[in-house]
C-alpha cells in the first residue's frame, strides 16, 4: 500500500522527509521520544534515521499483527536459549572484566547496550579487543570467556 493513498499521508511523508535534515542531537532526542530509551551506544546517524522512520511509520500505519509478534517472541526466546548453550560463557550487565596486555591492565564493564573499557564505550568485546591489540580478535576469547573443551 502506498503512503499517498492513506489518510494524513502528506504529514507522514513530510515527517519522514524531514529526518534527513536532523543533526545527531536531534535524531537522538527523536529516538528517546519515540522509543522511550536512549539509542544504543555507537550507532551511526543512518541507523538512527532508519529506525526512527520505521517507528514513525509503525505508529502511523500500525505495527505487526499479534500472531507475528508471538512468533517473533518465541523465535527470540529459542535463539537466546541456543546462545546460552554456545561455546562462550554468557556475562550479565555490570560484570567487570580485567585483562592485562603488554604490561597494561584494561578494565571492561559489560553494560545493557554496550561495553565500556577504561571510560570509552564500544559496541562489543571484539571491538574492545581490536582497539587494545590493533588486530582482529574474538572478544570473548581475548577476555577468557571461551569455555574449556571437555574431552
Task: Write a brief caption for the model.
This protein has helices at residues 9-18, 24-35, 45-61, 66-84, 125-133, 139-142, and strands spanning 96-101, 104-110, 115-117, 120-122. The chain has 151 residues and is an alpha+beta fold.
Strand order of the largest sheet: 1-2-3-4
- Kindly state the mean pLDDT as a whole number? 82
Put simply, the count of helices is: 6
- Biggest β-sheet strands, sense, barrel: 4 strands, antiparallel
Poorly predicted runs of 5 or more residues:
1-5, 81-86
Helical percent range?
Answer: 40-55%
Q: Which band does the percent of strand residues land in?
A: 5-15%
End-to-end Cα distance: 57 Å
* SSE topology string: HHHHEEEEHH
How many beta-strand segments?
Answer: 4
Work out the radius of gyration: 20 Å
Number of separate structural domains: 2
- Structural class, from helix and strand content? alpha+beta
Shape: extended
Structure description:
The chain folds into 2 domains: 3-61; 96-142, no CATH class. Strand 2 (104-110) and strand 3 form a beta hairpin. 47% of the residues lie in helices and 13% in strands. The protein has a 4-stranded antiparallel beta sheet with strand order 1-2-3-4, with helices on one face. It is of the alpha+beta class and 151 residues long. The longest helix has 19 residues, at 66-84. It has helices at residues 9-18, 24-35, 45-61, 66-84, 125-133, 139-142; strands spanning 96-101, 104-110, 115-117, 120-122. Helix 2 packs parallel to helix 3 (45-61). It contains 6 helices and 4 strands. The termini are far apart.
